Amino acid sequence: MDWNGYLDREQARFVDELIDFVRIPSVSAKPENIPDVRRAADWVAARLTRAGAEHAEVLPTAGHPVVCADWLHAGADKPTILIYGHFDVQPAEPLELWRTPPFAPEVRDGCLWGRGASDDKGGMLIPILAVEAMLAATGRLPVNVRFFFEGQEEIGSPDLPPFVAAQRERLKADMIFSADGLQWSPEQPQIVEGLKGLVSLELVVNGPRGDQHSGMQGGGIANPAMALAQLLASMKSADGKITVAGFYDDVVDLTVEDRAAIARIPYDEADYLAESGAHATFGEPGYSTRERLWARPTLDVNGLTSGWQGAGTKTVLPAEARAKITCRLVANQSPERIFDLIAAHVAAHLPQGVTARVERLPGRADPFLVPAGHNASAAAAQVLAEVYGRAPYRTRVGGSIPVMTTLLGELGVHAVMFGFSHGDENLHAPDEFFRLDAFRLGQSAYCRLLERLGAA
Amino acid sequence: MDWNGYLDREQARFVDELIDFVRIPSVSAKPENIPDVRRAADWVAARLTRAGAEHAEVLPTAGHPVVCADWLHAGADKPTILIYGHFDVQPAEPLELWRTPPFAPEVRDGCLWGRGASDDKGGMLIPILAVEAMLAATGRLPVNVRFFFEGQEEIGSPDLPPFVAAQRERLKADMIFSADGLQWSPEQPQIVEGLKGLVSLELVVNGPRGDQHSGMQGGGIANPAMALAQLLASMKSADGKITVAGFYDDVVDLTVEDRAAIARIPYDEADYLAESGAHATFGEPGYSTRERLWARPTLDVNGLTSGWQGAGTKTVLPAEARAKITCRLVANQSPERIFDLIAAHVAAHLPQGVTARVERLPGRADPFLVPAGHNASAAAAQVLAEVYGRAPYRTRVGGSIPVMTTLLGELGVHAVMFGFSHGDENLHAPDEFFRLDAFRLGQSAYCRLLERLGAA
Fold it and tell me: In angstroms, rounded to a whole number, what is the distance separating the alpha carbons of residues A71 and A313?
């Protein structure tokens, strides 16, 4: 039986295994889930071994662990490829918005529903299954393969840089493919050539020592929640431009050719809005929506917290107000420089009567662009054209995968996104799901990719 | 034994009873405490009966109940006075900031520490104990007395207007005294002549249908948390003036005489700031801090909530952002008109790409000013001068007691604040406390007040 027959025969088991995997609430952001992230790592290591990979090991970092494995018997004349993915997931809150519980995965309508089904448990299981099928069919792989799966992608991979630096030998490869990635649609493949960078911070405004009676102190002293609102409002113009001084200084502007290439890819505003349910697009003036999403930096408030948030009224003047903020960055912005610019902005715009500070949060990435004509990228494009029957679009993504820039920095290799999720799968929202036909197609695509790379 | 001797002899028991009373977590804002508010009502009714009051009854409203009782045997030639107070308390959160648990009251340093000790369980117990002492000493009271204690003051007494309208006969009185009130300091009494009005609302901004991945949608659609910040910031100038069109239109400006009278009362900015721990005063330009606190309207954000508020980073673009807002109003502002002005402001300043709505919350009061030369006010001032040995200051308070305006409207009687709490007792904050010497002094003051009113 060839690998394709094996994949067909074993598919029901693979779906059951993915269900087992999704059942583990490996939320990297929540301290109470630390043991679950570890449990997911153990699951991955065991699964790699069952697939026929060797040296599967759960390796410690200062935070959540990494899982590595390899199969290196293709011969010295064959390339070594490194396959990346992550087994941690986003928090599932608000739980009441899920149709079925996030960690009780269920198959409905040809999809698997559950937190992490798409991002990235389904995705990272695909290459493991591809390798199992090829080893089952032929006893060998066409190339040398290393696996590198992490447990902290959703919190920005804070402990990966020292890990990768220390494990350079174990991760050494000629090409890197990320199993965490998106296709354009179930019918249309893409090669993602760019990712945004990321800087995460919290803006904290303080006033009185504790929450005050709004009747006793209101009008006498400044209100930190209002001051926070004023500070946030000062960071953007009404028409959507970021007004933090120097914010755009290091941005490499889109060329006329870049803009033309982006404009060639079909875009339907109604479809785009349907993804999120927003009633209108909005953002920096002078750029199309897709240009803003793909190639312009952003500043988003991720959360606000202050004072009384329960039912009804509590007439307090709050002691403190906090905003979590992330900026998505593009080449050549630096997370550190953007943080410093925001801190300087806050100091320069501090409202009267309060104090404010800006704190870095976990979550940092440099912006990432695959160079044009890159060989791993070309091979991936050919495989996608074969399995989909259509040439892939060359696109960018607004998201960040910090480890991609870490791998580039430490190993000198540009990773290629080769994943089979889709942007409409509620990746960081309630009711996340993964298409099971993409799960199956991805397995074939990985087998073909290994064949193509081994034949070169 | 005269009433003074009785009060001295029974004081330790009275403190124990107050401890019992404070132990009941009668938080009117929280649905889970509905049975506790009812329990507090039962406690009050039983305590009134033990004091010698008649017809003590827990009476239903659409929300939390009311407790009424009376003693009406002084004779038709004697005035009838109504004594008001409340047995509900503010929420105790954040619990971790309390030195001892809010509902495990403890005596330390001559004070009773616990939620509601000062506001208003200690205060409302005082006139009950005064009546008990006079009845124990002489078998009668110098005036006819009605008690009217409510369980929803801390949520703005939403169900009191229909209750008072329906119970006009039961509440009919020549004078009204509120046992919910403050003295200037342990040494210096005051007559509070003004209370601010109140309007409570929530501003809700909506964008996408659920929280979105900030990398997938950031830059493409508007961020509701940023839009909320922009809306809030649009309501106040950087120097502290409320910029909602028409907000100040109905304000009766302070006269030269009003400002001079306020300026005569000692004010120490460092002492004022020490109350809250704020490092500076701040507010509407053109007015002193005390003028702003006493006689100028305010707009305060009481709470903010949006998106991810847990540990670390969650890279979401939130679906919704909410701000709770209360305005403290002065004569002749109307809560309804101010709500309409804010709603119109929100509609006029709505940022692009989001929707917003403004919802009334429970909590409304008209502003309240006791007319100069009012007879109950004069009697109260004389008693305070006797028990403190100093003439009371004539002051105003930034807080609101909605039922005061309801009683004025329905019964045609201006209430006089005759309470013995102090502004530094953390009334709506962690570590609330009540001074036990003020508890004792207040009991004598109520006995003297009844005597003075009966002798007139």
Answer: 62
CB A125 within 8 A of CB A440: no
Peptide bond preceding A223 in cis form (omega within 30 of 0): no
Instruction: Give the closest-approach CA distance of B279 to chain A in angstroms.
Output: 7
Q: pLDDT tens, A89-145?
A: 999 999 999 999 999 999 999 999 999 999 999 999 999 999 999 999 999 999 999
**CB nearest A218 (choices: B156, B239, B298):** B298
What is the nearest CA distance from B270 to chain A, expressed in angstroms? Answer: 13
Cβ A383 vs Cβ A177: under 8 Å: no
Which residues 6+ apart lie within 8 Å of A404 measured at CB? A84, A178, A195, A365, A368, A415
Q: Locate tokens 């598919």: which residue?
A: A11
Is residue A145 within 8 A of residue A383, CB to CB? The reply is no
* DSSP SS3 for B219: coil
A338, amino acid identity: I
* Mutation choice for B interface testing from A30, A205, A226 by most B CBs within 10 A: A226
Closest C-alpha to B3, from B125, B127, B133, B132: B133
For residue B413, pLDDT beyond 80: yes
Q: What are the structure tokens assigned to A168, written together?
A: 């350079």
Pairwise CA distance, residues B329 & A168, whole Å: 67
Task: Return the ∠ at Cα A117 (arms to A114 and A119), rounded to 5°.
Answer: 120
Taken as a whole, chain A contains a residue count of: 456
Looking at beta carbons, which residues of chain A come within 8 Å of B301? Answer: 223, 225-226, 229, 306-307, 318, 321
Residue type at B264 in one-letter notation: R
Q: What is the pLDDT of residue B195?
A: 87
Domains and CATH numbers, chain B: 3-195+367-455 (3.40.630.10), 208-251+297-364 (3.30.70.360)
pLDDT for position B261: 83
pLDDT one-digit tens code per residue, B238-282: 999 999 999 999 998 998 988 998 998 999 999 999 999 999 999
Which pLDDT score, from 0 to 100, does residue B456 have?
Answer: 73
Helix, strand, coil percentages (3-state) for chain A, rounded to 5, are 40, 25, 40
pTM score of the predicted model: 0.75
CA triplet B435, B438, B439: central angle to 5 degrees?
A: 85
Alpha helices in B302-419 (DSSP H): 335-348, 375-388, 402-411
- The minimum CA-CA distance between B56 and chain A, rounded to whole Å, is 30
